Amino acid sequence: MKLTSLRAVPLQATFADIYGGADKIPAHIRTPAAHFVKIPRLGQFATLVVAESDDGAVGYGECFGLPHPLAAASLVTHVVAPALLGSEIDDPAEMLRALREYFFAMGHTRGPAMEALSGVDIALWDLQARAAGQPLATLLGGSPGPVSTYVSPIAFRATPDETAADAAAYRAQGYNAFKLKIGRGIKTDLAHIEAARAALGDLPLYLDLNCGYDVPTAIALAGELPRYDIGWLEEPVPPDDPAALAEVRRHSPVPIAAGENEFSMPAYRQLVAAGAVDILQCNIGRCGGVSGMLAVGELCADHGLTMAPHGVGGCVNVAASVHVGRAARSFHSYEANRLLNPLRDDVGVAPTRLVDGCLVAADRPGHGGEPDMAKLRRYVLDTDSAGGANAGR
Predict the structure, then answer these.
(1) Where is pLDDT greater, at 381 or 33?
(2) 211 shares its domain with 347
(3) Phi-psi category of 277—alpha, beta or left, where left has phi over 0 and alpha has psi -120 to 50?
(4) Angstrom distance (rounded) from CA 186 to CA 207
(5) Strand, coil or helix: what is 109?
């Protein structure tokens, strides 16, 4: 089986289009977390990858989309595809090894180059599973079924009462573990944490600072958390200084989580070697795809840590992540991100279902998150890419 086609489709769903104008976007959508305070979030973005083989099998991947999808799409089209077309389809990590080494040698160890390889890896795994008529989880040595799940975000709200209402609404939707966005000053944070805890009773509650504090402030906040029974404190400081994160961890009475902003195994190994984390949170669309997420699970198993993958992405990212979660070692839970996203909820052939508080890896060939290309067309950013991806589909 040889790879005969590899195409990238950049996608965007802007909040201005969804709400009928930029002035109509609610504040908690425009600024849901600490890292969007100065640069508001404009919408949802992703790069779809479509791989085809000479026997007609098709697989779908997804590159992490923020802040914009065109960079990864260009690299897939102009660098990755020419290097891979005509290759025998085998182990995706091995197929992409030379490209990864090339990008590393050029200094592209983070960002769109790694996201491009991640999306292609997912597509190649999906293609092989669909060609074999197996669910991806089965091909990986697991089985389809439910994965432990927590919901996010309980986004920045103006008042604690609004935070409590959002937490209660998620609980009513059937979720049983939750994540609150914080990072507006310790006093404000604690008011919203207390409101969320009151609304949720003794259900698991996690906190996400989105790199919003410096080390002293993060340590001071962590010292206030034991009375709220917090499961972890996520990304308390920026991700480019493992020593700083380790300093927070040494003083924190609650576990520290990080990893959504890392792209490669050397970076994850640095976090582990620094003693910076208890939980690693890779995103499948930027950490090396299915192969990368499995490798992070192995790293966690080797060092007594747990893996709780980041859940931001479209329908392919979500479906592939829950399938890998059924097979990976040291898996803890998956993030069901519920910030408004048509690329996740409106374009899949079949949605990833929530059952008894868990997302379910579908018992269908591949990861089960393939898009309906007709529905997807309205979100395609580049019409030339749309024509290529839709041809004959």
Answers:
(1) 381
(2) yes
(3) beta
(4) 13
(5) coil
As for how many domains the chain has, the answer is 2
Distance of CA 341 to the CA centre of its chain: 13
Say how far apart CA 306 and CA 257 lie, in whole Å: 9
Looking at residue 201, which CATH number applies to its domain?
3.20.20.120
Alpha-carbon distance of 136 to 129, in angstroms, equals 5
Mean pLDDT for the chain? 95
Q: Among 2, 137, 116, which Cα is nearest to 56's?
A: 2
- 159/198 same-domain check: yes
The catalytic site residues sit at 310
Domain extent for 76: 3-134+373-390
- Same domain for 120 and 176: no
DSSP lists the bridge partners of residue 355 as: 358
The tens digit of pLDDT for each residue in 210-268 reads: 999 999 999 999 999 999 999 999 999 998 899 999 999 999 999 999 999 999 999 99
Q: Are 126 and 320 in contact (CB under 8 A)?
A: yes
Question: pTM of the full predicted structure?
Answer: 0.94
In the sheet that 256-258 helps form, which strands lie side by side, from edge to edge?
A: 306-307, 279-280, 256-258, 230-234, 205-208, 178-181, 149-154, 334-337
| Rounded Cα distance, 374 and 393, in Å | 9
Tokens of 24: 């109509």
Q: How far is CA 385 from CA 47, 217, 339, 368, in A?
A: 11, 46, 26, 23
Q: In this predicted model, what pLDDT tens digit does every residue of 316-350 receive, in sequence order?
A: 999 999 999 999 999 999 999 999 999 999 999 99
| Of residues 130, 133, 183, 131, the one with CA closest to residue 154 | 183
The Cα–Cα gap between 388 and 383 comes to 9
Sign of the CA dihedral with 262 first, then 265, 266, and 269 last: positive
Q: Residue ranges of the alpha helices (H) in the chain?
A: 15-19, 27-30, 70-75, 81-84, 92-95, 97-105, 112-132, 136-139, 160-172, 186-200, 215-222, 242-251, 265-273, 289-303, 315-325, 342-345, 373-376, 383-390
- Residue 37, token pair as written in the block: 């305070």
Which residues touch 232 (CB under 8 Å, ≥6 apart)? 206, 207, 254, 255, 256, 257, 278, 279, 308
- Residue whose token pair is 């182990």: 91
CA distance 149 to 151: 7
CB 333 within 8 Å of CB 150: yes
Q: Is residue 36 classed as helix, strand or coil in its secondary structure?
A: helix
